[in-house]
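Translate structure to sequence.
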């Protein structure tokens, strides 16, 4: 059977998968965001992950927001956002809506894979929606599986093709499995197969929770060292000499995964009347680093008889992660906006910020050398920012640098 894949959700996860598959299969990219579809048809990616040159090489792709266009598709990959509500509970509306859209075009022998981050049991719930809406039966008429996304935006080494891909489905149907591996071998060089979907769903959330907790620990060590006036960099230099020391950096934790995933697992545990103690341990510390940075800046300016309200401040690094345009849950940007409420003389520098935010918040691609700042605050670690840091060290602004996470100091 000829495979015609459809990727539902064309963000940081869905678009790279759609483009990878379009090298071999005629692929449909579906998104309900009209503006996103219009831009992609013009070969414009506002996330700045792909340029027009990369789009030009791809001939087998059709971007659409019309359900009728995806009727002929028989392999659906759902890559929609799964955020949290204000009360920190999982918000699965996007995934539920995407599943209902697929139910309108689902046919016998179609395959559906979910890549969105979920808590264990959600793939089964999507299966139930499909069965109810279509009266087709899973593992008989259609086949549903889970493959946790592992895309690392901005990373030129751990690319989509190089990252091992978990592919989880319960079926033993050899024809279906052959089609699944044809698709996922195009996406990744290494496939890890599992028949345990709930284990695969859980593996995704704990990958991010583990990282969240490790960064939180390093943030807490930084807070302790600051309070006790101990050289943090020297502490880490010495600790790294032990072979099994995990060398995580302190910093601001944002984006669509780390600040969200702990709540997905803990919410399910709470439903089962299990109170988690470690899962959410990193959240309070990591979110609290906003106050740490602002306190550091206050102290830095007070020593110059200045305050946040009357100082000329440059914030360097505003996206949640250096090298990407994504501002979702960016604590860097939160700090910038908090200061901006008190002071209009605040500047931002980040070449990776999207055009719309650059214009709205007057964010610059570089640091103006002719301006005498009272404080230049580095909030991200990246080669681009390090070059700026090294250059400023030799300029008239050298005594105005604040490096709160010891990235370059």
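Result:
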């Amino acid at each position: 059977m000829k495979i015609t894949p459809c990727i539902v959700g064309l963000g940081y996860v869905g678009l790279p998968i759609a483009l990878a598959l379009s090298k071999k299969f005629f692929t449909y990219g579906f998104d309900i965001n009209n503006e996103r579809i219009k831009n992609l048809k013009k070969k414009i990616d506002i996330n700045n992950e792909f340029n027009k040159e990369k789009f030009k090489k791809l001939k087998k792709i059709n971007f659409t927001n019309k359900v009728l266009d995806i009727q002929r598709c028989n392999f659906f990959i759902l890559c929609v956002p799964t955020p949290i509500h204000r009360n920190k509970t999982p918000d699965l509306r996007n995934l539920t809506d995407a599943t209902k859209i697929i139910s309108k075009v689902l046919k016998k022998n179609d395959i559906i894979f979910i890549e969105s981050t979920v808590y264990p049991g959600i793939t089964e719930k999507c299966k139930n929606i499909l069965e109810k809406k279509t009266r087709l039966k899973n593992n008989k008429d259609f086949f549903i599986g889970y493959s946790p996304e592992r895309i690392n935006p901005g990373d030129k080494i751990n690319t989509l093709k190089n990252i091992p891909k978990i592919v989880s489905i319960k079926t033993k149907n050899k024809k279906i499995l052959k089609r699944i591996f044809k698709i996922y071998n195009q996406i990744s060089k290494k496939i890890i197969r599992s028949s345990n979907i709930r284990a695969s769903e859980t593996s995704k959330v704990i990958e991010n929770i583990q990282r969240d907790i490790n960064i939180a620990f390093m943030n807490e060590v930084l807070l302790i060292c600051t309070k006790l006036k101990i050289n943090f960099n020297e502490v880490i230099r010495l600790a790294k000499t032990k072979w099994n020391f995990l060398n995580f950096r302190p910093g601001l934790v944002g984006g669509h995964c780390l600040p969200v995933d702990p709540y997905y697992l803990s919410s399910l545990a709470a439903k089962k009347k299990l109170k988690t103690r470690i899962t959410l341990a990193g959240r309070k510390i990591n979110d609290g680093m906003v106050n740490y940075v602002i306190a550091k800046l206050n102290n830095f300016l007070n020593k110059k008889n200045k305050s946040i309200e009357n100082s000329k401040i440059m914030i360097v690094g505003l996206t949640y992660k250096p090298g990407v345009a994504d501002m979702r849950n960016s604590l860097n940007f939160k700090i910038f906006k908090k200061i901006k409420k008190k002071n209009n003389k605040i500047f931002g520098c980040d070449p990776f910020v999207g055009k719309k935010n650059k214009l709205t918040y007057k964010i610059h691609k570089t640091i103006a050398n002719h301006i005498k700042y009272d404080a230049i605050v580095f909030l991200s670690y990246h080669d681009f920012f390090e070059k700026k840091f090294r250059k400023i060290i030799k300029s008239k602004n050298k005594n105005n640098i604040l490096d709160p996470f010891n990235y370059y100091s």
